[in-house]
Amino acid sequence: MITSNDFKTGMSIIMDGNIYQVIEFLHVKPGKGSAFVRTKLKNITTGNSVEKTFRAGEKVEQAILERKDMQFLYSDGKEYTFMDNENYEQMALPRATVGEGNILYLKENMSISILMHGSRILGVDLPPHVELEVVDTPPAEKGNTASGGGKPATLETGAVVQVPFFVETGNKIRVDTRNNSYLDRV
Questions:
Q1: What are the percentages of helix, strand and coil residues in the chain, rounded to 5?
Q2: Per-residue pLDDT tens for 107-143?
């Protein structure tokens, strides 16, 4: 148990049976009345944000979260199988737990991080950048490369990303997994 006076940005707490991460907090000492802590919390499982006010010194249960490095092995469409890098145990996760945005960038043998609270899996974190091959993109037309802009490119995992006109089918590119954007050619 911790008190609301111990809050720090990024800290995880358990409230109403859910795990929340502290995004913002502000200690307020009004001229009249008792002090309080105004917080903005993010629900780790749903991603929703809530604002909550705690009395100064109010006790809250701290959530101890663990990150496990794992390797993506394969998918059968419904479940995604990962292997623990330490003890080589395999774990199958449903599509919803992995996340629709993450599925677009999962590649066999990729190292990822799984966020856990005890034995409960909260989510999957991809590396911030991945290198993937372009399998389909329209060819550049003469003159349109000088004006800038971009064109859609389908990657080996099925993701579609806007790329500059000079990128061709067969090129390897680096993509930012956080905002689905092209970074550079590899």
A1: 5, 50, 40
A2: 888 888 888 887 787 778 888 888 888 888 888 776 6
